[in-house]
């Protein structure tokens, strides 16, 4: 059931390679963003941050859904690899939602004239960030891996279903109370160059996620093996 | 309950009476009070079972874990309901709210929203009580889950007090009901996973 | 309950870890009606873990427990019905009186007329005059008696006891031994887990030593405790 040391090390190596590739891809995206995409008429250069912000948001949302699904299977099969994957995903997801929360206000200050707006999407991402924080806080406060896996799986499953509810509630609230002066950042017809760059950036974010998760997963697996080995269990090779 | 009164007083004093009418702040004040009251109550929810292993006593009995969850949920709802029943009259007095026509609707909204977050809070408090830093962990976990019911309930309360028509209410009301159905069901199903060591 | 002539309690290959600690590594046992299994072992050997798994409070990582032939699983609450547990905690609510505590327990087991059942159980335990007291107001010995009354309330066929002699003085211990002997005589299966061998020695029909996550030794009890002690020390040392 549990991965071996060699497999854990291989996962870390592969993860490192993928992460480096993804970071190179990110540099490429910014090259594209600055050279290839048109400068947005109203927002100017500030709009460029969207090629990081939006894909990060998508990825953070996607990761939580993935964690929820994996957690359902975990409660069923009790395979600790699934739990390791969820844990690694949560840490990377936290990173992505932190990126999105910091890039958002940086963009919003020159464009909206304010750091923060209680816009539905913004609010959703803020609480998504809190969900990740809560999930990881719970994990860090439980010693027994079996119990930790089960408890955090419960939170991940509940959280996955919470996300649409948060969106819906904020959305309902705002549409019933329209704000007259809010500048809507929607761009219904994105120029093809922008769209293409955005999609590439999303792909790069997914690759970054995959790479980081492999690294975290491998490190986590090795950690558990070391702990188990220290207790007179199977002696790991060359550890 | 002392706590609930405290929140109401603070909000009322923090308000600049010339800038904002009491009614504009009233819904938020009410729901902040209810939310904090619920967190305080939920933090104590499994403490009685914790002492002397009474929880083991429950788990040994030939009773399905799901039934234990529903029992605990009802007990927590009763407890939070009492806090709310005390806070509501205070709220009416402090904010001078013309409640008359909205009372029935407000009670319904309160029941629906409270059920929603207490359902999730009950399963979280069962987990938190088994960890270190239980008192800190519960609010951190529960906060995102309180957002939909609180937003909907505060919005509905405001509209009820302003006497708005039904067409402006039913969207949020549906959201509350759906939230209750989803999270009561889900928590019931997931509770056994929390109870087994 | 319908008659059943297999072993009342049977466990096979139980394993359980806490993080890196592999507490149990394949423990199997059977206890027949009228038998008393004494599980001894040093502190931290996993005795309590074993007992909690047998009681269905803890899920084993591997292996299974059968009570009256029925597998313990949380989807089958009735499989737990024949189990009684005397843990090192009383399982009583501090805010309820003894009578209320026992009546509540009776209700959990669906016993008819719970208040009356509680009164009877308290009288049988010699606690009739303490029915209105809360657990806080009781001495260790009386509290232990209340805990036993609660455990026996539903006439369990399998009685699991975790360090039941801790905190009892000599006289209370002797009385308690008589009670347990009577229970075994009624055809119940008992498992006593303890590191105080002396207190429980003469009750046992079999003795097992839990060390290194396994039964290092299991055999019928015969002869004096003094003769067994060297073997016990050897088994503990592994």
Please give a structural write-up.
The complex is a heterotrimer of chains A (239), B (197) and C (238). Chain A has 239 residues and is mostly helical. Chain A has one domain (5-177, 191-229). Chain A has helices at 5-35, 50-77, 80-112, 120-140, 145-176, 192-229. Chain A is globular. Chain A starts with a helix and ends in a 10-residue tail after the last helix. Mean pLDDT of chain A is 79; it is low at 176-188 and 230-239. Chain B has one domain. Chain B contains 8 helices and no strands. The model of chain B has no long low-confidence stretch (mean pLDDT 85). Chain C is an alpha/beta fold and 238 residues long. Chain C has a domain at 1-82 and 157-167 and 187-238: Rossmann fold (3-Layer(aba) Sandwich). In chain C, 32% of the residues lie in helices and 26% in strands. Chain C contains 7 helices and 10 strands. Chain C has helices at 47-54, 98-108, 114-124, 140-152, 170-185, 197-200, 225-237, and strands spanning 9-18, 21-31, 36-40, 62-67, 70-71, 83-86, 158-162, 189-194, 206-211, 214-220. Chain C has a 6-stranded mixed beta sheet, sandwiched between helices. In chain C, α2 crosses α3 (114-124) and α3 (114-124) packs across α4. The radius of gyration of chain C is 18 Å and the shape is globular. Chain C starts with 8 loop residues before the first strand and ends with a helix. The chains are: A mainly alpha (239), B mainly alpha (197), C alpha/beta (238). Chains in contact: A-B, A-C, B-C. Chains A and B meet through α4 and α5 of A and α6, α7 and α8 of B.
Which descriptors would you attach to this protein?
heterotrimer, A: 239 residues, mainly alpha, 6 helices, 0% strand, globular, disordered C terminus, C: 238 residues, alpha/beta, Rossmann fold, six-stranded mixed sheet, four-stranded antiparallel sheet, 7 helices, 10 strands, 32% helix
- Report the average pLDDT across residues of chain A: 79
What is the number of strand segments of chain B?
0
Approximate helicity band of chain B: over 70%
Alpha plus pi helix count of chain A = 6
Ends apart, CA distance between termini of chain B = 34 Å
| Total count of domains of chain A | 1
Largest sheet of chain B: none
**Major sheet size, sense and barrel closure of chain A:** none
- The unreliable regions of chain A are 176-188, 230-239
């Amino acid at each position: 059931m549990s991965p071996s040391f060699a497999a854990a090390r291989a996962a870390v190596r592969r993860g490192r390679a993928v992460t480096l590739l993804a970071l190179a891809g990110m540099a490429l995206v910014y090259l594209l963003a600055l050279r290839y995409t048109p400068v947005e008429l109203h927002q100017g250069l500030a709009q460029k941050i969207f090629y990081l912000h939006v894909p990060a948001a998508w990825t953070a949302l996607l990761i939580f859904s993935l964690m929820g699904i994996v957690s359902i299977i975990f409660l069923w099969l009790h395979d600790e690899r699934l739990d390791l994957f969820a844990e690694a995903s949560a840490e990377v997801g936290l990173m992505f939602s932190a990126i999105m929360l910091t890039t958002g206000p940086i963009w919003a200050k020159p464009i909206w004239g304010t750091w923060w707006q209680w816009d539905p999407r913004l609010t959703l991402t803020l609480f998504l960030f809190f969900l990740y924080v809560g999930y990881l806080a719970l994990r860090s406060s439980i010693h027994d891996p079996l119990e930790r896996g089960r408890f955090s799986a419960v939170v991940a499953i509940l959280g996955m279903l919470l996300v649409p509810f948060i969106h819906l509630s904020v959305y309902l609230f705002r549409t019933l109370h329209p704000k007259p002066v809010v500048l809507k950042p929607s761009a219904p017809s994105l120029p093809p160059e922008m769209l293409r760059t955005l999609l590439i950036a999303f792909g790069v974010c997914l690759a970054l996620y995959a790479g980081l998760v492999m690294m975290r997963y491998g490190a986590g697996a090795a950690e558990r093996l070391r702990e188990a080995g220290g207790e007179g269990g199977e002696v790991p090779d060359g550890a | 309950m002392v706590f609930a009164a405290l929140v109401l007083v603070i909000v009322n004093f923090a308000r600049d009476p010339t800038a904002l009418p009491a009614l504009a702040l009233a819904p938020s004040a009410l729901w902040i009070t209810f939310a904090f009251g619920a967190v305080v109550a939920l933090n104590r929810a499994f403490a009685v079972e914790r002492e002397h292993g009474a929880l083991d006593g429950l788990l040994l009995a030939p009773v399905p874990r799901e039934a234990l969850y529903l029992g605990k949920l009802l007990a927590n709802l009763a407890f939070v309901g009492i806090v709310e029943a005390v806070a509501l009259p205070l709220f009416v007095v402090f904010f001078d709210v013309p409640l008359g026509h909205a009372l029935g609707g407000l009670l319904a909204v309160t029941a629906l929203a409270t059920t929603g977050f207490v359902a999730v809070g009950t399963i979280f408090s069962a987990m938190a009580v088994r960890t270190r830093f239980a008192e800190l962990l519960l609010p951190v976990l529960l906060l995102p889950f309180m957002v939909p019911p609180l937003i909907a309930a505060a919005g509905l309360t405001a509209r009820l007090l302003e006497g708005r028509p039904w067409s402006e209410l039913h969207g949020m009301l549906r959201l509350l009901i759906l939230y209750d159905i989803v999270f009561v069901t889900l928590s019931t199903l997931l509770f056994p996973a929390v109870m087994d060591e | 309950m319908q008659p059943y002539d297999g072993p009342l309690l049977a466990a096979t290959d139980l394993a359980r870890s806490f993080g890196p600690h592999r507490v149990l590594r394949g423990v199997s046992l059977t206890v027949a009606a009228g038998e008393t299994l004494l599980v001894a072992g040093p502190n931290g050997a996993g005795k309590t873990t074993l007992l909690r798994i047998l009681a269905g409070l803890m899920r084993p990582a591997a292996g299974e427990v059968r009570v009256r032939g029925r597998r313990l699983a949380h989807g089958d609450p009735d499989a737990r019905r024949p189990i009684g547990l005397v843990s090192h905690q009383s399982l009583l609510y501090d805010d309820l009186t003894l009578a209320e505590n026992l009546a509540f327990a009776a209700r959990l087991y669906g016993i008819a007329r719970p208040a009356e059942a509680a009164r009877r159980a308290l009288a049988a335990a010699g606690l009739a005059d303490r029915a209105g007291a809360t657990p806080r107001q009781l001495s260790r010995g009386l509290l232990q008696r209340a805990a036993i009354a609660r455990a026996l309330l539903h006439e369990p066929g399998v009685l699991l006891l975790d360090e039941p002699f801790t905190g009892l003085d000599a006289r209370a211990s002797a009385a308690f031994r008589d009670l347990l002997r009577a229970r075994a005589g009624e055809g119940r299966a008992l498992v006593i887990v303890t590191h105080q061998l002396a207190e429980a020695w003469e009750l046992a029909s079999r003795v097992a030593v839990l060390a290194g996550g396994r039964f290092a030794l299991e055999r019928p009890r015969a002869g004096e405790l003094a003769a067994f002690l060297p073997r016990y020390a050897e088994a503990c040392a592994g």
